[in-house]
């Protein structure tokens, strides 16, 4: 569900791009620059996600990052200026980076615990969710506005957060110097 919720966030954003551009009055070049900032924030935050995982459990980080990821999406979807767009896309990139690192770290731990490959299914779930929610978002934002698309993503985030709360143990990444073999 976490991978599906992540895909829902990405899909809702993707499907809402024409509406976001229109309501912020952004031209193509400026929007491209804003997306570049999102990407830089995303990639640069991945190291922070790893550092957080050494201090807090995946469970705690996901319970914080999933709602924050959705909240940054909501701010993007309701923003009305280019400045707001830049600020919110940067914050969104930060939350994407943290969530991505932690969900993959937990996915790896789950795969290790199950002793069978499951990562392909997790990533397939992201891809399918992006596609479904991009189409859904496009339809919702066109007919009912951007908040309706945010609500669709919120349902997935709520389900994923509940699943994390119920099912993910409080595990952390090994400290520097501790090998994966030593954990097993």
Q: How would the blueprint of this fold be written?
A:
Layout lengths: L1 H23 L3 H28 L2 H21 L3 H33 L4 H26 L1 H22 L12 H4 L1
Structure description:
This protein has 184 residues and is mostly helical. It contains seven helices and no strands. The longest helix has 33 residues. The protein is globular. It starts with a helix and ends with a helix.
For the report, how would you describe the main beta sheet? Answer: none
Q: List how many beta strands DSSP finds.
A: 0
Structural class computed from helices and strand pairing: mainly alpha
Oligomer description = single chain
**What proportion of the residues form beta strands (DSSP E)?**
under 5%
What is the rounded distance between the termini? Answer: 26 Å
Please compute the radius of gyration using only Cα atoms.
17 Å
The general outline is: globular
H/E series:
HHHHHHH
Low-confidence stretches: 178-184
Range of helix content: over 70%
Q: Count the helices. How many?
A: 7
pLDDT averaged residue by residue? 89
């Amino acid at each position: 569900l976490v991978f599906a919720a992540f895909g829902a966030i990405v899909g809702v954003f993707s499907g809402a791009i024409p509406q976001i551009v229109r309501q912020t009055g952004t031209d193509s070049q400026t929007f491209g620059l804003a997306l570049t900032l999102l990407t830089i924030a995303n990639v640069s935050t991945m190291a922070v996600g790893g550092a957080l995982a050494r201090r807090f459990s995946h469970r705690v980080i996901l319970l914080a990052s999933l709602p924050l990821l959705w909240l940054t999406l909501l701010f993007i979807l309701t923003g009305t200026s280019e400045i707001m767009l830049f600020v919110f896309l940067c914050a969104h990139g930060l939350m994407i980076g943290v969530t991505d690192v932690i969900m993959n770290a937990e996915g790896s731990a789950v795969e290790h615990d199950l002793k069978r490959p499951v990562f392909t299914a997790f990533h397939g779930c992201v891809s399918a969710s992006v596609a479904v929610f991009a189409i859904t978002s496009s339809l919702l934002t066109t007919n009912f506005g951007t908040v309706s698309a945010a609500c669709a993503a919120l349902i997935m985030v709520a389900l994923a957060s509940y699943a994390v709360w119920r099912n993910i143990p409080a595990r952390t990444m090994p400290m520097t110097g501790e090998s994966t073999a030593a954990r097993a």
